[in-house]
């Protein structure tokens, strides 16, 4: 049953005429200010999601709860974040599911950590690491705002150090030098489980794939994804947008194998 | 703690030299046959995931449990399936999470239904509909094989008929004429919640977007995704593949709004 | 034999440090001013192409003659111009060659007219038409600056009117409603010769292709071209640019057929 | 004035129902055979381009002269050829025009040589080199068939050797190791003129760009082009093709600079 909006909720206010969006936490007595007028939080509370609220100057705004994509894009950014086009592919290759335990290195601003926490649910766990304390603090604030603090365990760690977790179901690396963290990630992964990483340059890609193969990963695949917005206008017609994000990074995935023992009678 | 492979498990056998993969259910006394030799199921049982097993002719195969992507791609197909590049984007826009109740129209071969069931977990529910009984039977067999029969409720229904579910958290349409099902999907969605659809032609896209707007959806966005494989060879070098899937469909998402009531004192 | 730069030449001055380029016509006693200093035209004259000249403040600039791509991009624009990625494809499908007579409708800013004039050479002719006199005046000034005034004949004409030329070797249409001009272009083309057009929306594309087929064109093909800049940095590595032009238009080409006469004895 | 088809002409026969094309040289008394019937060359001679001719079994074929794109694609191939999408971009960056003298290294099957010869016209010259005599013989046969033998001078040469030409207007390199030929191409180019090359891997690209910069090229730019076919069906609708060529090569262009002499009074 759908809950009406309440104090303490984050609300996405959508300026109906222009489509601009604002993420606002509802608090008693507070007001939201924009150049299209002021909205009292008290007037939003009690409304169902999808309602129209009007600013004091009569301009319509729609009130929604943020979806996971809004959560990711609205984090306070200290770093580049993983884009939704890539994020969807990554969580599929990571086989993320409710209850899973996932390792992440390179917390960054926490946007992808939030997605992982969203998908593993309250019974799952995200173990995330970053070497920069100030970034981690920002990320943890973003994660807490999304309501997922209790699904995330964060730690400061330099690439190459062992991860203090074992038998994780999946590992994701978002680092400048992912190959430095691959052996430790391999050690922490349960047998057979997937590791996925993202890197921006061809040189980093090559070094990462080489290290994956040497460390004991198989079924290694690399792709890049391009997302192009399409403009659908009833009068002017349908056409792709003139601008797009041309590139974010190469995506690589593989699965942890165990060392093979050639059988005594194989004669190979 | 990682479980060794057991009878009743589906196992992905990976021919190590060529990378070909086979999905096999382990049964006592059975054998897997390929042109690289025979493998007794009994010899696979008890091994941890990621182990190497050898065929009678000494060829190595790796044994993995299938990931969700393998599950989707290995369904018995009666229809075109949703590709992983699109599937990841769709589940993000649908805000899928553990415990969610999701509506799907156009079950097809059930590949995307399996992904939804995977992500909503045992506490969630996928309500899926198709108008073709023979396709639905095939899809249900695929879903059962993936182990998700108890998370899925399927029904036969023609686009335009009301869906026998209410207040669902998300709706996905994969139909030739999605606009016929949009009003019914709107009626079944909880306020504020997302609907996503996929269509192959510009004409279908335009009609879908028009119907979404008229029915009461906002924040409507359309994209297309292109996935290009990258070849990473340590000696020959890094380069994109010469072949790719150039197009699958246009992806459209929007959120259900409620009808606006202009306040008496707004003077608009 | 390479000629040194001379008065009356257009020169591309390239700010060496930032790569910004300026198109300047060399005149006695004149100066070029930029925020990196002043350059006397007299000091550029007499230098070979590719020379470095220094501003009064000691900043290096390279002096080149503009190539055809520079000519196209540096026109004074009153309209969207045809991009090089598309222009190259178009001139190939038009089979442009020295001495050819080419029809163009939609002169726009004249950028593509300049390319056609460049390729047909002094023995060829470009017949270009636009319905807007003020655009045509601007285009003719651009064409004259490129030195191709005597290869181009321009006229004011509304789409649908007959073109006052016959037996042309190729026709190019760059109009909002190219289908209006297709029958007249067909009438002006020599038998068997190609027509190419560019349109931005799916609806315009469909109408154009329908009209081409009905008017008597065959071998009709449609493509879109995407050009992505690649960043090649020796230290940071190789990667695609994050931004690109995602779309300019759909390109359509076809060839004029003659009406078929079924032979009396064919029995078809 | 359009010439009717004659003996000695190459003719593109287009099977009207399926769109398959065949390149045929018209000779007295000869016949063209396909699974849709036989066509006597004598019955094609005298027809204008774009005419319909019927096979003995009554099937319609259209008769066209080949355009430059048909010429390129119909060469007898011993190697990968430059694709039209890339070829158009390359000739623009090379500033090819009637009368130009162009250097090419890597003749391959001669497809791009034919395009260059087509565009430089009878007053121009293409100097093309390959290290493999058997490929060069095949290319020269292709060039002769296209009617451009007298515009092309070919030689056997290994990358790194000096080219026996000077002051050329443009240079194009299509080699596995283009960097080996860059210094010699620089020496043969007139000051300020462009060099363009194509390479398939990121590593080759990086080495090429490094060598270009060190050898004295500026305004270096790299792109890749993607061409996607679009299906335009009046009933089924408009949509991109499901398959495309995902990658051919990276395209790099630059211009030859002269060594800078810092002026005595510059104080830099």
Explained architecture:
The structure is a homotetramer of 268-residue chains. With 268 residues, chain A is an alpha/beta fold. Chain A has 2 domains: 10-66, Vcp-like ATPase, Chain A, domain 2; 69-256, Rossmann fold (3-Layer(aba) Sandwich), CATH 3.40.50.150. Helices cover 24% and strands 32% of the residues of chain A. The first copy, chain A, has helices spanning 41-44, 68-73, 84-93, 111-120, 133-145, 182-188, 202-215; strands spanning 10-15, 21-25, 31-34, 37-40, 51-54, 60-64, 101-105, 125-130, 152-156, 170-173, 194-199, 217-233, 237-240, 243-245, 250-256. In chain A, the strands form 3 sheets. Chain A has an 8-stranded mixed β-sheet with strand order 9-8-7-10-11-15-12-13, with helices on both faces. In chain A, strands 2-1-6-5 form a 4-stranded antiparallel β-sheet, with no helix packed on it. The longest helix of chain A has 14 residues, at 202-215. The model of chain A has no long low-confidence stretch (mean pLDDT 94). Chains in contact: A-B, A-C, B-D, C-D. The interface between A and B is large, with 83 and 83 residues. Strand 12 (217-233) of chain A pairs antiparallel with strand 12 of chain B.
């Amino acid at each position: 049953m759908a809950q009406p909006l309440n104090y303490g909720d984050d609300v996405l206010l959508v300026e109906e005429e222009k489509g601009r969006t604002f993420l606002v936490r509802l608090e008693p007595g507070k007001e939201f200010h924009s150049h299209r007028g002021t909205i009292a939080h008290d007037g939003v509370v009690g409304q169902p999601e999808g309602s129209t609220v009007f600013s004091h100057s009569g301009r319509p705004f729609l009130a929604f709860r943020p979806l996971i994509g809004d959560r990711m894009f609205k984090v306070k950014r200290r770093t580049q974040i993983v884009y939704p086009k890539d994020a969807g592919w990554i969580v599929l290759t990571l086989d993320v599911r409710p209850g899973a335990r996932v390792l992440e290195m390179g917390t960054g601003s926490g946007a992808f950590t939030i997605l992982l926490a969203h998908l593993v649910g309250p019974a799952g766990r995200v173990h995330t690491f970053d070497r920069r304390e100030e970034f981690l603090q920002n990320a943890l604030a973003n994660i807490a705002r999304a309501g997922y603090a209790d699904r995330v365990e964060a730690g400061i760690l330099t690439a190459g150090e062992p991860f203090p977790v074992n038998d994780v179901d999946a590992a994701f690396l978002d680092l400048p030098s992912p190959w430095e963290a691959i052996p430790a990630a391999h050690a922490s992964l349960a047998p057979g489980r997937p590791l996925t990483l993202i890197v921006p340059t061809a040189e980093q890609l090559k070094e990462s794939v080489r290290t994956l193969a040497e460390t004991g990963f198989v079924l290694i695949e690399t792709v890049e994804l391009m997302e192009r917005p399409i403009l659908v206008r009833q009068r002017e017609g349908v056409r792709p947008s003139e601008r797009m994000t041309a590139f974010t990074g190469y995506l690589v995935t593989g699965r942890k194998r165990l060392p093979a023992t050639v059988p005594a009678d194989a004669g190979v």
